[in-house]
């Protein structure tokens, strides 16, 4: 490769590489992206559909203000006139009311069979007898108390008149000046008191009723003539000694169980307390329960002012004498314009739907992060030099952009189709709210992603979060918000959960939009944020603070997890544990270590150690890799002893050397590689790569390192060329040098021709993926390359192909290769080490090893089983020190020391033997590497068992 002078890639080069890769990746995922964006659009459309249907239903002519055709300007043609008087009661709701009707103020009078009478719970004998309930003629009771009973009696007496008859020509004034009331319930719209259009009578409360208490009088309200029944009812005023007595009596009026007869309702109660001639002080008890199901409190107040007026009138009369009166003439509602009956569905249903829409981004970000982790792509990128800074910056910005586009589509589309939820509220508040929330959500996804390593689990958790938060918000949290008696502090605590703070924000938008639409006012404006009922301000504060905290915490956890010491447990915890263990461990290690070197170290391994020590003293930098007594110990868990994965490895590799590592499974090869590529930290000792220490300078080492992991770590949807371009950029290749390097690389692994380079990696065969992995490990001219079983699972042709690549590549770099294939080791490696049970058993080039450990031929012969002994005799004759290493039903294998036998003798003896008995097959072989390997491994294991 041409360019060898490039240094490590800068922050921005790395960021650029990652960004380009992500964009390509997204381009491939276009279908999924379209599905994602279409979700809110579909929801909005659904809302609009429902809304149109509902409004169509509400806006039917029979619900519109009643109209009639009359000739108003006298030109003989009739004009359409719409007014309340042409409307039914239902239509009236939408009529303009420029001049609302007025009606006399009323009291809330208990229904006849609810009025208080003597009963077992209320033993006061001054109450009326229960028998009046049968005739429906019970009086209404009013209680009063105070410091001065004389004064109280006077005031109470002033309240009602006796023998008062209605003047039928001016009923309304008469009703206003006498004390009137109704048992009907006030309603939501207050343009007329229901008392005047329900069938219930109007009660005229007097201290004594005349003979004929019931009369029917004409009433004119807003030019509508009505006949109204007015019924006289006796008002009883009873003195009680203290306000606590009043309290207990009122309390006993509430019904218990289902018995209607037990209800004892009292009109009202007055406490005149310390009132006297100079001073008027009154408290009034009234029944605040009587509000209709719409539930808004102030409606009950409609029947309240008259109670106050009654008391002040009585006091005025006490001061000034009878005849003085403070007339409370009428009650009327504010004028109202013509209104259309329309419900804004987007605001009613919107909160839940929109919560889902926005939360839906969470699993998307989460799974995408966990995918890179599960496929180990993150660590792969890191090993090829991608720093954490660029990774975080680009990933974060990238998800922020995706989320912002999503939200933008959502808001713009919602506004275009006219959802009040969006159009009524100030856009700047909405944008800031959504912006802060998506940032919080992304940070949260980063944090949660650190705890999962499986895409499926994280997807499930993500969607449970989405639907759970939405439903809990809609069916639990919202009730807390609406319930004014629920402590506000607890709501803020609940809002610390991001799903609820989102819900609260959307809920506020919906409320403002709904009310604004209904009342014809504005939606939420910045000024409304200072309103104490508006929860938006707290939501903003909570979300901003959480955003920063979660982001910091996520970065911290990510660092802890990716520093490799373990999964899931936290950094500080681990550090603490390590510290506690290490001092103790070092001692035991040292003992163990010395034993190993004295008793078991082979001369070749010892030589390598001396070489390393010398190199370190000379501070030599010509060697690519120098391992200095590298050790890895896994601490014992659950009472198991500590596991020594690597027990002091010393090794020096020069440039241009390929070192093969052989060893049985579990020998510690992978632990060694993991330490070298920075996945785990060594327990003690260190290694220098290009003169850089793996303990402290791993980030610099990454820029000149290539890794071909045991399993292919590739993006399914990226092509081979895109993989190489990405990793090439990470290695700081640019422009034409990059293109050239990628092309050469593709050609060298035979992926260039036939359009293979531009096929997605997911569609590659196993061999192609393997070759691509090797190409990735070699791109950008790394000085040290680690290959973990590079040819596993390849057919012989592909394998040869791959070997050629590696052979070519080893010219000017050090390669460390682990393999189980002796053939591969022999073809590729300049030196081999057999690694058993955590330490090197031997080291040397393949020929040397064979000579050293071989030194014998292997003689095999197969006969029928009754000739076995003759074969053995034959061998003994050839070589007295022969060693039987294997036998099974007629097949026997012997090891013949080379110095004892001549090959010609062997052939001769076999020819002779063939004449005496049938030989099915026979063979004589020189020792193979495989024999060396097995021998070394067995020896090492045997000596380990002994020690
Ligand atoms: C009670 O009120 C009456 C009427 O105002 C007054 O004459 C009387 O002195 C008051 N009694 C006391 C103890 O204040
Ligand atoms: C009723 O009121 C009208 C006007 O206020 C008055 O002229 C008339 O005398 C009254 N009739 C009775 C019976 O009080
Ligand atoms: C209220 O006080 C009066 C005078 O002190 C007393 O006679 C009467 O029994 C008391 N009533 C009750 C219900 O305690
Ligand atoms: C208050 O009004 C409600 C509704 O009319 C009624 O059910 C309840 O019994 C009343 N309570 C009292 C103490 O009068
Ligand atoms: C509330 O008002 C409606 C009419 O708007 C009426 O039908 C209903 O009976 C009222 N509820 C009660 C508890 O009186």
Fold topology:
Elements: H1 11-28, H2 30-58, E1 67-70, E2 79-82, H3 89-92, E3 102-103, E4 107-108, H4 132-135, E5 140-145, H5 149-159, H6 171-177, E6 179-182, E7 202-206, E8 214-221, E9 224-239, H7 243-251, E10 268-271, E11 283-285, H8 305-320, E12 331-332, H9 345-359, H10 361-374, H11 377-383, H12 388-416, H13 420-423, H14 427-449, H15 455-482, H16 488-495, H17 498-519, H18 536-562, H19 571-600, H20 603-617, E13 623-634, E14 643-654, E15 658-662, H21 669-676, E16 684-689, E17 692-693, H22 698-702, E18 705-708, H23 720-730, H24 735-748, H25 766-778, E19 784-788, H26 796-809, E20 814-818, H27 822-828, E21 831-836, E22 839-844, H28 846-853, E23 856-863, H29 868-878, E24 883-888, E25 891-897, H30 903-916, E26 919-926, H31 929-946
Parallel strand pairs: 4-6, 5-9, 5-10, 7-9, 15-20, 15-21, 18-19, 19-20
Antiparallel strand pairs: 1-2, 3-12, 6-7, 8-9, 10-11, 13-14, 13-16, 16-17, 21-22, 23-25, 23-26, 24-25
Helix pairs in contact: 1-12, 1-23, 2-9, 2-12, 5-8, 9-15, 9-17, 10-14, 10-15, 12-14, 14-17, 14-18, 15-17, 17-18, 23-24, 25-26, 28-31
This protein binds 2-acetamido-2-deoxy-beta-D-glucopyranose (5 copies).
Q: For the terminal residues, how far apart are their CA atoms?
A: 51 Å
Backbone shape: elongated
The structural class is: alpha/beta
* Major sheet: 8 strands, mixed
Salient structural properties:
ABC-type transporter activity; eight-stranded mixed beta sheet; ATP binding; 47% helix; alpha/beta; membrane; nucleotide-binding
Summarize the structure.
By secondary structure, the protein is an alpha/beta fold. Helix content is 47%, strand content 16%. Among the domains are: 20-44 and 353-562, no CATH class; 96-332, no CATH class; 855-926, Alpha-Beta Plaits.
């Amino acid at each position: 490769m041409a360019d060898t002078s490039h240094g490590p890639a800068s922050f921005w080069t790395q960021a650029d590489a990652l960004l380009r890769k992500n964009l390509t990746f997204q381009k491939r995922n276009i279908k999924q992206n379209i599905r994602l964006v279409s979700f809110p659009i579909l929801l909005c459309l659904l809302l609009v559909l429902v809304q149109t249907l509902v409004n169509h239903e509400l806006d039917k002519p029979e619900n519109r203000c009643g109209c009639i055709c009359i000739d108003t300007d006298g030109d003989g043609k009739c004009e359409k006139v719409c007014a309340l008087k042409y409307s039914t009661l239902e239509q009236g709701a939408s009529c303009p009311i420029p001049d609302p009707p007025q009606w006399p103020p009323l009291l809330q009078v208990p229904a006849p069979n609810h009025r208080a009478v003597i009963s077992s719970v209320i033993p006061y004998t001054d109450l009326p007898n229960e028998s009046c309930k049968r005739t429906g003629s019970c009086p209404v009771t009013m209680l009063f108390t105070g410091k001065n009973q004389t004064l109280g009696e006077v005031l109470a007496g002033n309240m009602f008149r006796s023998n008062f008859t209605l003047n039928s020509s001016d009923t309304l004034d008469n009703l206003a000046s006498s004390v009137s009331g109704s048992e009907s319930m006030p309603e939501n719209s207050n343009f007329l008191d229901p008392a005047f259009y329900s069938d219930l009578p109007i009660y005229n409360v007097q201290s004594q009723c005349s003979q004929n208490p019931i009369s029917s009088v004409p009433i004119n309200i807003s030019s509508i003539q009505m006949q109204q029944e007015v019924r006289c009812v006796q008002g009883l005023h009873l003195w009680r000694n203290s306000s606590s007595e009043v309290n207990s009596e009122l309390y006993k009026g509430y019904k218990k169980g289902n018995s209607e007869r037990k209800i004892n309702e009292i009109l009202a109660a007055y406490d005149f307390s310390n009132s006297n001639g100079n001073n008027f002080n009154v408290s009034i008890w009234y029944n605040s329960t009587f509000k209709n199901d719409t539930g808004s409190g102030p409606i009950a107040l409609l029947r309240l002012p008259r109670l106050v007026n009654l008391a002040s009138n009585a006091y005025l009369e006490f001061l000034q004498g009878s005849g003085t009166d403070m007339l409370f003439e009428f009650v009327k509602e504010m004028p109202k314009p013509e209104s259309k009956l329309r419900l804004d569905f987007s605001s009613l249903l919107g909160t839940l739907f929109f919560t889902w829409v926005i939360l839906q981004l969470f699993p998307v970000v989460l799974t995408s992060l966990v995918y890179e982790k599960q496929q180990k792509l993150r660590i792969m990128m890191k090993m090829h030099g991608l720093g954490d800074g660029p990774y975080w910056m680009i990933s974060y910005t990238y998800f922020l952009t995706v989320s912002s586009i999503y939200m933008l589509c959502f808001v713009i589309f919602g506004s275009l189709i006219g959802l009040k939820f969006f159009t009524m509220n100030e856009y700047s508040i909405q944008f800031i709210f959504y912006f802060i929330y998506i940032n919080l959500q992304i940070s949260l996804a980063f944090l949660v992603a650190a705890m999962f390593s499986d895409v499926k689990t994280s997807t499930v958790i993500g969607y449970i979060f989405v639907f759970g938060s939405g439903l809990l918000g809609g069916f639990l949290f919202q009730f807390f918000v609406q319930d004014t008696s629920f402590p506000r502090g607890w709501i803020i605590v609940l809002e610390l959960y991001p799903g609820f703070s989102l819900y609260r924000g959307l809920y506020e938008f919906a409320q403002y939009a709904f009310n604004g639409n209904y009342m014809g006012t504005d939606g939420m404006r910045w000024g409304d944020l200072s309103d104490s009922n508006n929860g938006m301000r707290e939501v903003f504060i909570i979300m901003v603070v959480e955003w920063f905290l979660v982001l910091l915490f996520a970065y911290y956890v990510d660092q802890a997890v990716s520093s490799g010491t373990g999964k899931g447990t936290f950094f500080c915890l681990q550090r603490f544990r390590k510290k506690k263990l290490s001092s103790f461990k070092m001692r035991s290690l040292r003992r163990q270590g010395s034993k190993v070197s004295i008793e078991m170290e082979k001369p070749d391994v010892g030589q390598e150690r001396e070489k390393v020590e010398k190199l370190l003293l000379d501070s030599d930098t010509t060697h690519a890799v120098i391992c200095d007594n590298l050790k890895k110990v896994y601490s014992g868990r659950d009472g198991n002893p500590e596991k020594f994965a690597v027990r002091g490895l010393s090794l020096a590799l020069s440039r241009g050397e390929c070192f093969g590592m052989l060893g049985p499974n579990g020998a510690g090869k992978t632990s060694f590689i993991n330490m070298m590529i920075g996945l785990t930290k060594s327990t003690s000792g260190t290694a220098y790569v290009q003169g850089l220490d793996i303990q402290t300078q791993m980030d610099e080492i990454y820029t000149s390192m290539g890794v071909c992991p045991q399993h292919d770590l590739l993006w399914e949807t990226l092509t081979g060329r895109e993989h190489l371009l990405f990793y090439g950029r990470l290695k700081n290749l640019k422009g034409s040098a990059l293109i050239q390097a990628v092309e050469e690389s593709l050609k060298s692994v035979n992926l260039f021709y036939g359009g293979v380079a531009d096929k997605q990696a997911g569609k590659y065969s196993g061999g192609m993926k393997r070759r691509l992995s090797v190409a990735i490990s070699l791109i950008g001219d790394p000085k040290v390359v680690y290959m973990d079983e590079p040819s596993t699972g390849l057919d012989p042709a592909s394998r040869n192909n791959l070997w050629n690549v590696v052979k070519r590549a080893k010219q000017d770099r050090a390669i460390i290769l682990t393999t189980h294939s002796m053939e591969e080791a022999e073809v590729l490696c300049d030196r081999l080490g057999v690694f058993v049970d955590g330490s090197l058993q031997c080291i040397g080039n393949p020929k040397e090893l064979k000579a050293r450990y071989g030194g014998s031929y292997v003689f095999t012969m197969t006969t029928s089983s009754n000739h076995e002994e003759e074969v053995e005799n034959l061998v003994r004759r050839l070589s007295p020190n022969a060693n039987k290493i294997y036998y099974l039903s007629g097949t026997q294998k012997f090891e013949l020391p080379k110095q004892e036998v001549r090959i010609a003798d062997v052939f001769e003896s076999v020819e002779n033997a063939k004449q005496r008995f049938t030989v099915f097959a026979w063979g004589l072989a020189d020792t193979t590497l495989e024999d060396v390997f097995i021998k070394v491994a067995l020896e090492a294991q045997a000596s380990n068992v002994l020690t």
